[in-house]
User: Fold this.
Amino acid sequence: MPFTSGARAAEPIKIGLVTALSGQSARAGEALTRGATIAIEEINAKGGVLGRPLELVRRDDESNPAKGLIAARELIQREKVAVLVGGLDTPVELAIVPFVNNVKVPFVVPWAAGTNITRNGAPSNYVFRVSAMDDEVDKAIVQFSRKTYNAKKPGLILVNNPWGESNEHGLKAALKAAAIEPAGVEKFEGNDVDVVSQLSRLKQAGADTLYLVGNVGPSSQVVKSLDRMGWAPPIVSHWGPAGGRFTELAGPSAENVIFVQTYSFFGNLSPVGKRVMSALQAKYSDIKGPADVTPAVGVANAYDSILVIARAIEKAGGTEPTAVRDGFYAIDRVDGLIKTYEKPFAQDKHDALTAGDYIWARFEDNHIMPFARN
Assistant:
């Protein structure tokens, strides 16, 4: 039953969210906030978790690892959140992972895809993910580019940070498994405004397709550099461009980038999808239809993450951190937005999604639209 004034006296269970709420990727932080908020309001309307309401407490990491770690410490040590939820940037999440494993507080990642976020080698791992994971995305990129563009000699253009490194490893492994030799691997810095020299080397090496890994700002510079060169190869990307003002920064050629996603509000929606879409339209005046839920991946992953967290707390019978961590392993079924999760986690499996859960999308105007199913 919904909370009444008397029931509000029950101490809330705080869920912390650390993500980019400002800067080029602020749209991603807003999407995560909205997805989490809709899920929390839905759960609270049914009586909460163990008779207690959920409460979202947010902090801005500004896409900065040091600031993300400070925010995580504040949420856990001062706000006493039961579970921490992460954000967009792999380097930020990697800065937080050792801390949460040390203090033994569950950390759920609804966006950042770096493989070693969840596969972090900790003897007691408190990090879970409801999102894409680089190694799986990299296999999907290779499969999609071969099927869609008959790619035979792809060039890799990757941001020079831990996320880029994660995907360099994953893409090389996926290409080797497919018996494909890349044209080359080029890196760029997150603040580079010109990558013509790197792209020229890939072009000269005979690259017939580009595999792109970078968030909004650097990805837009790759697109603009290609425009300056007059070169328009197919671009198959990780989902970095979806996290913010990509079309504004990249210009008209933004639509040439095809990128991976986990969910779209277009098409025949499940009952959960219809319910969430209605809730989004009722709560947020800027959402008139599915094209306005951008990026949908942030909304969907955060929504499902909160459902999973709520079930783990139920299974734990309380908010003691180690019990909640073990509660994730005890989850039997959650009817989510992306899919129905059947036993999504195990001691050796901390990622709830696989390559079979991915779809492909592109920007049309300022909206993320489905391109083709993998």
